[in-house]
Amino acid sequence: xxxxxxxxxxxxxxxxxxxxxxxxxxxxxxxxxxxxxxxxxxxxxxxxxxxxxxxxxxxxxxxxxxxxxxxxxxxxxxxxxxxxxxxxxxxxxxxxxxxxxxxxxxxxxxxxxxxxxxxxxxxxxxxxxxxxxxxxxxxxxxxxxxxxxxxxxxxxxxxxxxxxxxxxxxxxxxxxxxxxxxxxxxxxxxxxxxxxxxxxxxxxxxxxxxxxxxxxxxxxxxxxxxxxxxxxxxxxxxxxxxxxxxxxxxxxxxxxxxxxxxxxxxxxxxxxxxxxxxxxxxxxxxxxxxxxxxxxxxxxxxxxxxxxxxxxxxxxxxxxxxxxxxxxxxxxxxxxxxxxxxxxxxxxxxxxxxxxxxxxxxxxxxxxxxxxxxxxxxxxxxxxxxxxxxxxxxxxxxxxxxxxxxxxxxxxxxxxxxxxxxxxxxxxxxxxxxxxxxxxxxxxxxxxxxxxxxxxxxxxxxxx
Length: 464
Description:
The chain is built from 16 helices and 2 strands. By secondary structure, the chain is mainly α. The protein has one domain (5-457). It has a two-stranded antiparallel ribbon with strand order 1-2. Helix 1 runs antiparallel to helix 4 and helix 4 (117-146) packs parallel to helix 6 (176-197). It is globular. Residues 458-464 have low confidence and may be disordered.
């Protein structure tokens, strides 16, 4: 690949945003729990977080490692009590990767978390969430190039994703959501390449697809399991129902699946998620019970309660669509794309099904809208599916660029506010619903006036 000035500008812009976005403290229990494990693994050679600066039950947390609000004097609450010691409730594979990152930083700079907690938080955020942001933005840009979009459309797609969605807000602090999003954008790019070049029978490419899918699984087992099934079916169907490509795909996923479940069993004595074991949350003054833990049976007493909760997943104060209004355009685009045969249709169906499946699964199994966070964090990785759909729609119907520009212009101030308040917050932009509603109305009106048809008509005729 020959690098152009635009390539370098996109990459440099992503790096600058990551550098500016990364914070030098833990913003909540989620990232505090992850950072505690990383410190414990490298500096104390244990999975136990009892003596971490982010959590010391006897002395309380060190204030300089927390943000303005900070946790309770009990330290990070995202923890498990197992045989008298505390452990993080987060997936272990990502903790190992972060610990390797910290080990390298320590070897190069001599950084020790206990001595320089602000530097530790900043560099861990930058080299995980910040790096994931750069990778995700770069992959969306390369997706537009791979699909042959005009330069202006490719830049619009990239700017919309990198500036006018939740993506920059999740670059601010350590979290698994943006790491999974980076993996999902890599996967979307690879799936488009395989689909359009007919590489389904290449065991090398199938192992790459499996490896990226397996990595996603290790960051979020629930959504990752749905992704595993959807992509596995895509491989099987695309290869003409041959076993060799499917086996290669499985081999690619294996290290990540084994790594997750072996470590999970070693630490918590369970094959399933440790955070789904109620007994591990029975520590003094624990706020977690079977009534509010995600993954402990269906979370709703009736069908009506479920429908209301699932709707607020998308349209409430933390609603995923309300924080990413560009996806309102992806819905009719998805309908149009699946109705017309093309090489990329199976990939669109697979990733679209993953997005819908993630929404439904977490709507069924959760009760708290993903906790203390700016939006529904479980849905953030599915932005990759939405922008794959938008990218293909831009190629098939160039006039879609105007619709994307309209929605992105309304989304930009929302994304800027989300970025300002950061990843872990319960604050929301004033008049949020009215602003997003206005964005959708302006889009519907301008699109209908320009094309003479309703956006949900499903037609794939090339628009002017």
